[in-house]
Structures are given as C-alpha cells and as structure tokens.
C-alpha cells in the first residue's frame, strides 16, 4: 500500500492518499484514506472512523443523496460529503476500525468492548493525522450514527490535537441502543448483518464473540437454552438460527444473549465516558427517533465543556450519503479549528424545533421552556380528558384487546384514545409518562405506545413513542413526575390476572397541537407491519413481537387512574 497522493479524475480539485497505514500503540495497523485539495498547503483534518468500510463511504463522491424510502438508501454511508469537506478547506480522513475493511487486528464484541478500546485507537489515529505534513495540527471528527458514537469514545480519551467534535444521531446508551424499554430492537441487526437497507459491518473472520470467549461451552449452552425458552425468541426464525449458529454473526449473538442491562453494556458506555470530555461538543438530533433524542439529552447534561444541542424537525432519518447539517458543522469547525470568530458561540446552547409550528425555541438548558406536567386520563369510548374517571371498577369496565402471535396472524391489534379538538394552540416540550393499569393473562408482554397529532383532514404526525417490556416494569430512584426511568437490570415475570401499574417512559418531544387538532394515543403489543412513519425508517427498524397469545385489559376507573402525564409549556 502507498501514501502517494493521486488526483481523482471524477472530481477535479481533489486528491486522495489511498490506504494510509496508521500504527496503533499495540502494533496493529489501521487503514485510512485522506481526501484533500490539490495543493500542498496543510489544512485542518476531519476524521471519520467506523467498521462500515471506507470504500463504501467513497460513494459520497459519485452517488446523489438518497432519502427513505429510496431502495438505494444505504444506512451505512455516514461519513459525510467528501467533496464539500475538501472544498471547505479540510482534509477528510476516513478510516476502518480495528478488524474491519483493510485494517489489521481483531474486533471483539460490540464496539470492541471486549478488546482494545476503540477510543484508544481513535486517539492514535487523531495524533497520527495531526503529525502529517498535509495537516496543520488541528483535528475534528465527522460522521453520524456509529461515526458519532466513535467521536464520543475518542473525545473521552482526550487526544491533545482533537480540538472539537460535531455529533449527529449517535448512540450513547449501549443497552438502549438495542433494547428499547427492554424490548429487543432489530435495526442494529441490520447494521451488523447487512440487510434491510444497510450494507452492514465490513468484518470478515476478524470479528469474535465476546460471550464465546468469556464463558465455557457448557455455560453458553445453558444461556442459549434459556433464551430459546423465551416464546418471543422461539417464534422468530432469525433469532433461532443465530442462537444455534453464533459464529455466523458474533456481535448480534452477544446482544441477544444479554437481554438485561449491566456490566456488559456499561463497561464503555459513552454516557459514562463523556464526563471525561473537555473539548467543545456540538450535538444534533432530529425528532422521530425518540431513543436517540433521549441519549443526546443525557449526554448533553453530563458534558462539562463548551457545548451545543440542536433538536431538529422531522424527518427522523437523514439522506445517505449523509449531507445534512453540514452548514452548521462547518460554522462550528471554522470557529474551533480555524479560529474564525463567526458568532457560533454567541447563540444559546439549546435550540429546539417545535413540530406543528415554525418556532425554534432557544435556551441554555433542556427543556428550553418552563413546563407543567399535567394528566390526560383514559376515559370510556376512547376519550382522553383532563378530568379523571369518577366511577369505580364496578361501573367503569376496562378496555382491552387480544393479540395473537404474528406466527398465526398479520393483524396487529391497536386500541386508542383521543382528546377533543384543541380550542387553542397547545405546546408540549419534554419527556412524558404513561401510567397504565394493565391486567394480562401471560407472564410477559410488550407495551408499545405511539402518540400522534391528528389534523382535521385526517393527516397524522407521530409525536413520540414509548416502549416497555412488562417484566421490566421496575422503576429506579431517578424517576420523577413525567420522567420515569427503568433500570432494566432484571426481568420480573408478571403474575397473570393481577392488575398492575406500568409506568412507560415517553421519549422527549417538542410539538404544538393547533386548534382543531387532537392528540391520539395508540396502545399495542406489536407494531403495525407498515405505516407512514415506519416508511421513514430502515426496513428492519421494528421490535421483537410477542410470541404468545395475550389478552390485555386496560383498567381506567377511579381506583386505577390510567393516564398520560405530559409536559405542557407554561409560556415562560
């Protein structure tokens, strides 16, 4: 391999130093490509690191950006607009993490949590880049999703030449990345395996299961048998196959075998590591991806240095190749890497787009306005009102639905409640909670909530979602009114036939319900197989359905006040 630059004939003004060899502290060598202008002037560098393959990222030079639901949308082309990075006066360095693409080494477990810290590797890449004659010593990072998580891992190691980072759509709580409310989410499978709109990780035989290395064959067999005894797992062919043939997709096997939170996910959790970050951090996330919005807010709270948070509008998924947010990213780096006083730090730290309104709310904190948590109560005939139900359980009969497993039906049962039309514009910004008094006839089920803004003409906009595995209903001491937290450290089976209160976290959102609109909340234990919102997400972005028939009874009487607790702004 050579570091001799060559000009890209398809893009005049760009040269690429192909397959650069970047040494790590343990002797492993990583591979990277560097895109720059045609002169020899040293420039600041923006580094992108992932296991998706640097050759895939090069498609940004030849493929126009694709939006969902284009069949050419590939979720892994996330390193940014190479041509624009160069045109703005930066070197774009795109590298393969350890064990992937053209890099040496082995990758163990998710984010290499069982092997060499990816943060340490990123430190070494950044310092190597800063020492090259084509770099002026100022380094930032670029890229969304996995690339964004890598920026947090890198910054926590404090490489001296990393001056700032700009993160969009990263994943920070490793458990919540794959288990929403304790319910297994399939989208990470797509990123790892390469299916459903994703090319997947560029690992070959250098990816190893951390579980297979950490435990004896007897212990692995025991754990596999326990997972296969779960009716939800047993009803899903891909998971049955995975558990019988774990070396086919080692990282996905490790995730499926670890269904509760703990050391497995917390060892290198970016939210924990972020307390060590001292460089300026810009966080950006769009609404509609509630679990990731939650992670950005949690990360923003623990960062101690200069920081910005932007919560953008729909749609939830950017184009691929990723080109959005570049204007603000280059303002950020012009200030922190080039020393241009462009005013980027003169605006408030937090900026939030409010759905249903042209308003962008700014403040120094989240939520950006004072809020008052108020309840909307589930009522008869699908009503949702500020007034609680006055009648007791003898007279206010519960609502309910029966869901057959998807092995025998394609019909997903949904039960809903709705407000009267709003008489005046009503704004809500923050997290929320659903307090549901449920009686189910099985040891477990999924609780899936989706809140919509329903317009008079029938159009609906998703506002937020909430997920909870019933066996994960325990709350921890972080819980406050309207802001519940579940530790997810163990599963406690439900006692069939007993009415229990389940408090479901509603992911952060910002919206205005205009006059004439209604708030609609839907409850199910699986997701509709196709709808307008899911069409905005990759095909595998759904959750593991319940593999057993379940009857759900929703009690909503004076003794069992099932309700939503929502963040109404107070106008201040």
From TrEMBL:
Keyword Transmembrane helix part of the UniProt annotation: no
Highest taxon of the lineage: Bacteria
Domain Xaa-Pro dipeptidyl-peptidase C-terminal residue range list: 330-565
SMART domains: PepX_C
Transmembrane segments: none
GO molecular function, one term: hydrolase activity
InterPro entries, A to Z: AB_hydrolase_fold, CocE/Ser_esterase, Galactose-bd-like_sf, Xaa-Pro-like_dom, Xaa-Pro_dipept_C, Xaa-Pro_dipeptidyl-ppase/CocE
UniProtKB keywords: Hydrolase
PANTHER family reported in the protein's UniProt record: COCE_NOND FAMILY, PUTATIVE (AFU_ORTHOLOGUE AFUA_7G00600)-RELATED, PEPTIDASE S9 PROLYL OLIGOPEPTIDASE
Name of the protein in question: CocE/NonD family hydrolase
Organism: Actinomycetospora termitidis
């Amino acid at each position: 391999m050579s570091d001799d630059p060559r000009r890209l004939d398809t893009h005049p003004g760009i040269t690429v130093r192909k397959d650069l060899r970047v040494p790590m502290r343990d002797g492993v060598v990583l591979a990277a490509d560097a895109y720059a202008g045609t002169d020899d002037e040293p420039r600041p560098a923006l580094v992108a690191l992932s296991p998706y393959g640097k050759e895939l990222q090069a498609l940004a030079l030849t493929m126009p950006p694709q939006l969902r639901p284009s069949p050419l949308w590939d979720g892994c082309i996330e390193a940014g607009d190479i041509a624009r990075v160069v045109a703005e006066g930066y070197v774009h360095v795109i590298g393969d993490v350890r064990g992937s693409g053209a890099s040496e080494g082995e990758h163990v477990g998710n984010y290499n949590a069982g092997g060499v810290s990816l943060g340490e590797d990123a430190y070494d890449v950044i310092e190597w880049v800063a020492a090259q004659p084509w770099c002026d010593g100022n380094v930032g990072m670029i890229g969304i999703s996995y690339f964004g998580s890598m920026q947090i891992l890198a910054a926590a190691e404090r490489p001296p030449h990393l001056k700032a980072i700009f993160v969009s759509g990263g994943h920070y709580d490793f458990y919540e990345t794959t288990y929403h409310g304790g319910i297994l989410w399939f989208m990470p499978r797509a990123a790892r395996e390469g299916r459903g709109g994703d090319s997947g990780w560029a690992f070959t035989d250098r990816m190893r299961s951390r579980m297979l290395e950490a435990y004896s064959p007897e212990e692995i067999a025991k754990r596999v048998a326990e997972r296969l005894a779960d009716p939800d797992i047993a009803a899903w062919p891909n998971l049955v196959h995975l558990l019988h043939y774990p070396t086919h997709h080692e990282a996905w096997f490790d995730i499926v075998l670890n269904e509760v939170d703990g050391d497995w996910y917390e060892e290198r959790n970016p939210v924990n590591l972020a307390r060590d970050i001292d460089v300026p951090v810009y966080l950006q996330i769009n609404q509609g991806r509630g679990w990731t919005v939650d992670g950005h807010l949690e990360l923003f709270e623990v960062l101690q240095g200069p920081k910005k948070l932007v919560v953008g509008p729909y749609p939830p998924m950017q184009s691929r190749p990723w080109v959005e947010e570049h204007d603000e990213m280059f303002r950020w780096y012009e200030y922190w890497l080039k020393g241009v006083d462009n005013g980027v730090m003169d605006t408030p730290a937090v900026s939030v787009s409010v759905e249903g309104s042209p308003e962008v709310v700014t403040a120094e904190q989240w939520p950006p306005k004072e809020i008052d948590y108020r309840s909307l109560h589930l009522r008869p005939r699908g009503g949702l009102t500020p007034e609680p139900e006055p009648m007791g359980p003898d007279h206010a009969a519960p609502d309910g639905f029966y869901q057959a497993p998807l092995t025998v039906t394609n019909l997903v049962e949904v039960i809903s409640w709705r407000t009267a039309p709003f008489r005046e514009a009503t704004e809500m910004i923050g997290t929320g909670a659903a307090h549901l008094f449920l009686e189910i006839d099985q040891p477990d089920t999924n609780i899936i909530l989706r809140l919509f803004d329903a317009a008079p003409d029938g159009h609906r906009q998703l506002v937020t979602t909430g997920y909870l595995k019933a066996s994960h209903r325990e709350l921890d001491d972080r819980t406050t009114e309207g802001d519940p937290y579940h530790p997810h450290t163990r599963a406690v089976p439900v006692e069939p036939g007993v009415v229990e209160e389940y408090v479901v976290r509603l992911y952060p959102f910002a919206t205005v319900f205009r006059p004439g609109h209604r708030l609609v909340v839907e409850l199910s234990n699986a997701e509709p197989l196709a709808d307008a919102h899911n069409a905005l997400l990759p095909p595998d972005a759904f959750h593991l359905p319940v593999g057993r028939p379940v009857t759900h009874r929703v009690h909503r009487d004076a003794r069992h006040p099932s309700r939503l607790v929502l963040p109404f702004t107070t106008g201040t």
